[in-house]
Amino acid sequence: MSERGVLHVKGRVLAGPDDVRDELWVVDGRITYDRPAAPGTDVTTVDGWVLPGLVDAHCHVGLDTHGPVPAETAEKQALTDRDAGTLLLRDAGSPSDTRWIDDREDLPRIIRAGRHIARTRRYIRNYAHEIEPEDLVAYVAQEARRGDGWVKLVGDWIDRSTGDLGACWPREPVEAAIAEAHRLGARVTAHCFAADSLRDLVEAGIDCVEHATGLTDDLIPLFAERGVAIVPTLVNIATFPDLAAGGEQKFPRWSAHMRRLYERRYDTVRSAYDAGIPVFVGTDAGGALAHGLVAGEVAELVRAGIPPVEALSATAWAAREWLGRPGLEEGAPADLVVYGADPRADVAVLGAPRRIVLRGRVVG
């Protein structure tokens, strides 16, 4: 499509789960449902089932298992997500400066949470600011200013003194830090595998919990009452048995705990969904996991018992609304994906995008 070309998308445009339209037009990079008065001959037409660009609400561009990566590696990560139809990323913590991606019209849009904030020696080396509780408020304020409206805490990690998962922060500094983030206009999320840290974080006002494998029957009503979202990252939780096997000799309690969390992962997610807790799609790509796994994560949510349309919404309409980004509305930036069949009927369709349109241009 040329600089002044018009894109005509026809077939079934899923502006919402039940809002199906026959066509849309892209003019100057933005969506319109009104046929241009004089589109001329420079019109590119694509057809199929159309969704807003998919959302990965938990990924890490610029990060691998060892820490920050060169720009060329971060570019490949972002392109892999884009080619999978994932056009909006919530980067849930990265030590790399990826602001240069914002200047690239061919790369997905990123909502950053700054760099992870962890307790000293209580997270993966080279990932996080590693600090003590007395510095938590200051570092949360710093990352709130650096991010795009989110801050990421490490809520729990293995405690070598007990040989098991344990909460990282006392209640008082967590309350003060979350209050400071909110004062600065940022929301707060936290990495949490176990149950220990969850009540304090939620009662302190946290907005979201990543993984949330430790959710229990007594905590689920609290999450629902406070409207705290979860991003289960089930494609990442699938690695727990291997992690447990690797730590068996040194930390047998931790290994057994990780296996229990894995075994009840689907029940945990389904119970959260049934209670009305907002559930969103995230893959945790960029650490040990590859990018481009959103279709697999949606399939995992369905496997857990979430209805297909709701699992689809968790990476499409609802996810974009939660993150404050538009979907397929009149005048919105044209970030959309075209499929050969109805993804509401079979979420496996997400694994085979027919066309990808980013900022009004066909890029795949």
By secondary-structure content and strand pairing, the structural class works out as alpha/beta
**Helix content estimate:** 25-40%
Distance between the termini: 12 Å
Question: Strands of the biggest beta sheet: in what spatial order?
Answer: 3-2-1-4-18-19-20
What fraction strand? 25-35%
Total helices: the number is 12
Number of strand segments: 20
Radius of gyration: 21 Å
Shape: globular
Low-confidence stretches: none
Mean pLDDT across all amino acids: 96
Described by strand count, sense and barrel closure, the largest sheet is:
7 strands, mixed
Please explain how this structure is put together.
- The chain is α/β, with parallel strands linked by helices and 364 residues long.
- It contains 12 helices and 20 strands.
- The protein has helices at 71-83, 136-146, 171-183, 198-203, 220-226, 234-237, 240-247, 252-263, 265-274, 294-303, 308-313, 317-323, and strands at 6-16, 19-27, 30-32, 43-52, 54-59, 63-64, 67-68, 86-91, 109-112, 117-119, 129-131, 150-154, 156-159, 164-167, 187-192, 208-211, 229-231, 336-339, 355-358, 361-362.
- The strands form 6 sheets. Strands 3-2-1-4-18-19-20 form a 7-stranded mixed beta sheet, with no helix packed on it. A 4-stranded parallel beta sheet has the order 12-15-16-17.
- β6 (63-64) and β7 (67-68) form a beta hairpin.
- α2 (136-146) packs parallel to α3 (171-183) and α7 (240-247) packs antiparallel against α8 (252-263).
